[in-house]
Amino acid sequence: MSDSILVTSLDEALKWGTGKSLWPFTFGLACCAIEMMSAMGSDYDWARFGSDVFRDSPRHSDLMIVSGTVTKKMAPRIRRLYDQMAFPKFVISMGACASAGGPYVRGYSVVDGVDQVVPVDVYVYGCPPRPEALIQALKMLQDRIVAGRVKH
Amino acid sequence: MMGRIQFPSTGGRGTDMEDKVIEVNFGPQHPSTHGVLRIKVKLDGEIIVDAQPVIGYLHRNAEKLAEMGAYPKGMIYIDRLDYVAALNMELGYVLAVENLMDVQVPERALWIRQMMVELNREASHLIWLGTHGLDMGMLTPFFYCFRERERILRIFDEITGSRLLYNYFAIGGVYSDITPKAIDMIKEWTEDFGTKLEEIQSILGKSYIYVSRTKGVGTLSAEDVLSYGVTGPMQRASGIKRDLRKDSPYLFYDKVNFDVPYRTEGDVYARFLVRIEEMRQSIKIVKQVLEKLPQGDFYNKKYSKPMLVRLKATGESYVPTESPKGEFGIHLIGDGSSIPYRVRIRSPSFANLSSIPTMLKGYKIADLTAAVSSIDPVFGEVDR
Lengths: 152, 384
Ligand code: SF4
Fold this sequence. Notes:
The structure holds 2 protein chains of 2 kinds. By secondary structure, chain A is of the alpha/beta class. Chain A has 5 helices and 4 strands; from the N terminus they run αβαβαβαβα. In chain A, helix 1 packs antiparallel against helix 5. The longest helix of chain A is centred in the C-terminal third of the chain and has 17 residues. Chain A starts with a helix and ends in a 5-residue tail after the last helix. Chain B is of the alpha+beta class. Chain B has one domain: Cytochrome-c3 Hydrogenase, chain B (Orthogonal Bundle), CATH 1.10.645.10. Helices cover 46% and strands 13% of the residues of chain B. Chain B contains 16 helices and 8 strands. A 3-stranded antiparallel sheet of chain B has the order 1-2-3. Chain B has a 3-stranded antiparallel sheet with strand order 6-7-8. In chain B, helix 6 runs antiparallel to helix 7. Chains A and B meet through helix 2 of A and helix 5 and helix 6 of B. Iron/sulfur cluster binds next to helix 2 and helix 4 of chain A.
């Protein structure tokens, strides 16, 4: 089956479709969420890249942008929201906090990196990353999905 | 515009109401929580019997971390308290430190600070307006507000080098002078922002749906406001005309001419009007600062950057300032070393948020998002 022309091209089409229609999940945690909103907003307008449909429910969305500090109180909720998302699902870890604890890494209530809770596809550095950086992360994720280089 | 319903009411379903009360969770993930707020709502049918906010989902130990480094190092945690108005936070901290150490600040630096703080107040209120529109089911104001906010951010980018968190105010002045290009940008902005604001206000204020969903909703009386310690636009919307910029002027607020808007209704619509009017007043202040901006140093030469970390202090200081959310105060205690002994933060959003039970009791569940977003809570500051 796998070498039949139909299946391969359907597969390709699926990958292309998944990459170009990521529906992000409206999920702001801290300061980085404001820059995420800027990326959605008028100037940066990331609807240009096919992921304009911000959904409020995890069950509707396939891209989670963890934008902010992950605290020990919030971490189980993030995992739960991630579990509620349907496959295929992807995670962008936005900012120093979500990637490695950021300026708060010495704090007693902060998880140093969201990758301890959910698998992460793309990390964005910066505190906060500029909207351009987030858009680049989105493009990177899209390219990887289209090339079939994602874990799930 | 149903207004508040008095309890106990039977909700039209006989007298066994007690059993019918159900508890619903709102948040911590919800598009209208402005971050990570959770509210435990007790509902009788559609009517809110009780609402208790649960906070702490963004507790990042800002106070303790600020007590772990030298005085200027605390700034980065203060910056990240109210991240939509970072300069207002910095101002509170920097004034408290300067008060503690008796630092003289050149006049030009003070004027620059005042202008930057007002610009940031605009940016903060614009975010509020945009997201408030989203919460009320309107997408357009969000895009209009972000278009205007980006212009302010470009000015900040030009002056400070960053968009959201600046670390711009230094002990003894500011880190960089404002450039001629920035002055042109600000001038251009002050000229046409007024008409843009008019436009944004009319989208919301002329919408019948918006007005009927906000008038008479989430009311707080003047007594409630005082007993909860609610400050800022929320307080002024409930008929208490108190603004620290007028009542105990810091910087040069006594040398500029502006009004303190206030309303007496105390509902969501009144808060909307008060914030819009505050934005108009801020434009006025920025214009006056541009006229009065003196020449000179932008920082005190005695406090050069490398020696800031070696500054030592003894004693206490508390400086309250008017942030976009209300009275923001920093209480510093120095024990003679170069590390603060205590950094206590009086955060306005925390006090404002505590009024949620009173604000929501007796309203419909659909009024919840309107009331919560009218508080304008920012969780970096609530949870600290
Ligand atoms: S990385 Fe920086 S901007 Fe982003 S959430 Fe953490 S502290 Fe805030």
